[in-house]
Amino acid sequence: MVIDFLIQIALLSKRIHFFAFVFVIFSVSANSAGLSDKALSLLATKKDFRLCIESANMPMSGINDTGEFVGVIADFSKLIAEKAEKRILFVSIDTQEGLSELLKKDECDAFSSSIQPKKHHKHFRASQSYFQEPVAIVISNEHGAIEDEKHLIDKRIAIKKNTSLFNNLQDKYPALHFIPVHNAKIGMAMVSAEHVYGYIDSLTILAFQAKNNGVTGLKMTKFLDNTVQNFLLTRRDQTVLLDTLNKAILSISEIEKNNIVSLWAGINYQKKLVNNSLTLWLVSLMLTILAISVYIVASVKKQKESLQRTYKSLSEEKDQLRAKLDQKVDAEKQSIRFAEMFSHEYRTPVSIISTNLDILELKNKQKPLFIDSQLEKMRDAVAKLIVLVETALDRESLASSNLIEEKSEMDLLMLIRALKEEMLVNYPKRNLVLQTAEKSCLLLADKKLLKIMLKNLIENAFKYSHINQAVSIGLYTENKKIIVTITDQGIGIPYADIKHIFDKYHRASNTSNTTGIGLGLYLSKLIVTQHKGNISVTCPPEGGTQITIVLPQ
User: What DSSP character marks residue 19?
Assistant: First the structure.
């Protein structure tokens, strides 16, 4: 019958407890293993069964943290001893070298080997095979299937040195280039680093390494239909012991074998005929799933660390922005306090000047001093000073505080007409033209704020255009929106300044010869935004500036 295997991912929590170096088992019945009378006679005289076993060859054999022997060979030996009603004594060795001498010197009764001696060997005899497994090779995911020996010619293949498998494969495939290494972990690492083409070992050992060391980027495939069989070797003079062991081995069920292998490698061997390519595909699938799992865990961990760094960076930026906002609020408060202080302080000297002008005008009427023109200029200068300072203070106060709208239904056309008359009184030498076909323009708005906004824009148009050039106001409705345009034929705005023209305290580069503090357009945009509208500025090719305000109706 052909022994093949299916791969099942099985993480078992089963533990086996036994004394360090000594495992004592008592069966319920001596006949459970079907022993002969001769074998029973031996049991009556010799209960101990000494097995030489490696102490550091996991998953086949090793010593755990509590000093107990564990692994596939150790567990099979305990099971065999249990069925033979023997007490097993483990004799610890470092390597398989020198095992033959230990057996000859009667320092142990048997040892496990994957080499079956010839039938008429001078010193040893082998038991029945208690465990058979495929030989596999681990290669990179990028390589294809290995069809025959020729596929491996001129390729470096790692294999554990000083083992029966190494010796067997060297004899069987003399044309292949084998690289001896200390253990499977080193061999698989060399494959990952592309120092060798592949690493050969038993499937159990390879699966154990893949399960416990998180191998990625590699796959496992069969190695040219080779298998490894494990035997117990005894001296030729221990015929009764060998018979006892064979009876016990034959009584081991497939379920018991599967339990031992699954415990250490997560692999389930089943005795059935299956398609080899399907089996190998399942092995590759297991390794692929394992590799993907490791990759996902690593990716999630990396992403988590990235998110933590991003969160920390955003938190720091938030603190910086909060600090800047606090500074800005403090600056705004200081600006308001300055405006209030300035408003109080400037009124005293202006009042003194205005009072003395009144006295001079009275004296001039009582006794002509021929200073009428000078008094008129002084009076006009004082009036302009008052308007200039009051306007600047109003703008600074509005721009430094939150505008509170008091909306009510109003007619924008009536407001513009009234403002036009007021502006012509204050600027009698200017020409202000209203262009509209509308009868009325009703909307819900804060009348006071809209008046401040329109007055700012008209005064700007007057300021930056010649006194003989007209300023026009356009008013029309379209798609339930009110559009207002204010156009002048003045100096215009440089292209580089247009994108910043509505910024607070910004002044265009061509306005250095005119007074201003850069709040008019900023305040106008603030008011329009409060009314859910928008404001834009363009400089027509023919010159001048056009401000366009769009308000919802």
Answer: B
Report pLDDT digits (tens) over 111-127: 888 877 776 678 888 99
Domain count for the chain: 3
Same domain assignment for residues 239 and 370? no
Domain that holds residue 371: 330-399
Residue 241 maps to a domain: yes
39 shares its domain with 118: yes
CA atoms of 4 and 193, how far apart (whole Å)? 31
Pairwise CA distance, residues 18 & 86, whole Å: 14
Q: What is the pTM of this model?
A: 0.41
pLDDT in tens, 123-143: 888 999 998 888 999 998 888
Place of tokens 């559009």: 483
Distance CA 211, CA 405 (A): 71
Count the Cβ atoms, other than its own, within 10 Å of residue 496: 9
Among candidate residues 382, 385, 456, 377, the one with its CA nearest the CA of residue 419: 456
In Å, how far from its chain's centre is CA 157?
A: 38
Side-chain half-sphere exposure of 78, counting CA atoms within 13 A: 22
Question: What CATH number is given to the structural domain containing 546?
Answer: 3.30.565.10
Exposed / middle / buried, residue 364 (Cβ in 10 Å: 0-12, 13-18, 19+) = middle
Q: Same structural domain for residues 541 and 413?
A: yes
Integer angstrom CA distances of residue 255 from 15, 82, 252, 269: 17, 16, 8, 9
